[in-house]
Structures are given as structure tokens and as C-alpha cells.
């Protein structure tokens, strides 16, 4: 990540056209100002606006603690077109996460979630497949070892905190997740690895450009802390970094 002495660090740009731009959002950065995160002073919208010297419109959102592909429109009309495509399910998203325990080879989680803002339950579906499993000699509770899985997650709906809630629902919470995850595991990672990042990475975003009709695929490389934990848990040589 580049930086200048007088401004916020520049956001890594993964894709840019006349009307769209995608960044690799760092873990811990809010997309925009929020009343529930009054401690934050920097936001992706403002940083990217200043970086590009023009207004930007986030066409979707990522949790503060999630890193990876984040797409912005550069015009109001493109924002409307992309919002429509998201609502119609025309956007394919995939994530990678490190979770507690050994997950099944693959599974579809079809479990309705309560909207935190409205209280209404909404249909929510997530498909995942296990990329790799590991068992390390790190005692936890009554166990002399600890087990973890790297999973690829593909949501077919876009509910708030869907991936976090779904993985917690099947008792394989994402490491570093609060409040849906396992606080004892989070404490273990903080004490043993000095790690407090949520290990959820928005890996890829695919969509059809509304104007050119070109199929666009944008992939975000892992950020340093996620990559460090891949090495620590799965081994540098064996880590499926693709």
C-alpha cells in the first residue's frame, strides 16, 4: 500500500474504467460513516474520493472487519444500474474464510436470518466448499490440538452479516468474528498469534458491465494479516493462494 506524508494511505485499485472502480479494502476500514462506529475517523468513500479527485458511490458494502474487493460507481447513473444488478442477483461473489473445526467438503446453508435493523426474518442461502483443513499442536480447552478449515463461501443472497451468521449457525464460526464468533477462539488467536483481524476475505466479484456488456472478473490478493495466518495454520508451501 502506497502512502504520502500528508494524506491517508492510498487504497489499492484492482480495476478501473470510466464509470467503475474496485479497490482491495483493508480489514478494519469502514466503507462510510456510521453512527454505530463513532470511533472511526477514516472511511473508504472519503479516501477514494480524495485519491481520485471525484465523487464515488459504493454499490455494495463489506463489513468493517472484512477485507477484499469493494466496487464503486463513478456516476450516479452507473450506481443505479449496478444497484439494480445486485438486487436482481446478477453479481457473483466469492469469499475465503478461516473457520473453527473441520468443515464438510461442501454444504448449502439455507437458514433465514433476522434483519438487525427491521427485526424481519429474510431468506438467506450460502454455499461453501472446503479448500483445506489443518490440525495444529495448539491446546484449546480439553483438546491438545486445534482444528481449522479454509473455506470458499458463495452467498446467493445478500443479507447483513450473512456469512458470519451462517458459519456460526453450523458451529464453524469465522476466526476473529465478534459478536457472532467464538470469543474463546478469538482470545486464543490474540494471545498466541497476536491476531485480532476477522479472517474473512472478499476474494472475487464478477458481473456484466451494464454499458459494454463485457463480463468483468475482479480478484483481490490476500492482505498481509490473512496471508500470515494462512502460513501459520496451513504452512507457507501448502497454502492454496490462488
Automatic annotation (TrEMBL):
Gene Ontology molecular function terms on file: catalytic activity, acting on RNA; pseudouridine synthase activity; RNA binding
GO biological process: enzyme-directed rRNA pseudouridine synthesis
Endpoints of the signal sequence: none
DNA-binding in keyword set: no
Record key words, sorted: Isomerase
Superkingdom of origin: Bacteria
Keyword Isomerase: yes
InterPro entries in the cross-refs: PsdUridine_synth_cat_dom_sf, PsdUridine_synth_RsuA/RluA, RluA_PseudoU_synthase
Domain Pseudouridine synthase RsuA/RluA-like: 19-169
Organism encoding this protein: Spirosoma foliorum
Protein name as catalogued: Pseudouridylate synthase
